[in-house]
Give the backbone structure.
Amino acid sequence: MKEKKRIEALKRQLPEEDEVQCPNCNLFFYDPFNLLSLSTLNFCLLCANKKVDKEEIKEKYHVNN
Ligand SMILES: [Zn+2]
């Protein structure tokens, strides 16, 4: 419960448009790592780890090796 209050307080400090909803788990994210993951993979980091295989991540991030 404490954690939830902390997050609510944090949310209020940020503009609404910085929040992105993950289409898979329907949670809202506003930290740069999840936002990057959502804009590139369309999943939050947690869902990306579960759903997107490594080859696809490489492709989307344009990793060459
Ligand atoms: Zn998710």
In short: The longest strand covers residues 20-21. Strands lie at 20-21, 28-29. The chain is about 55% helix and 5% strand. Residues 24 and 47 are 7 Å apart (CA to CA).
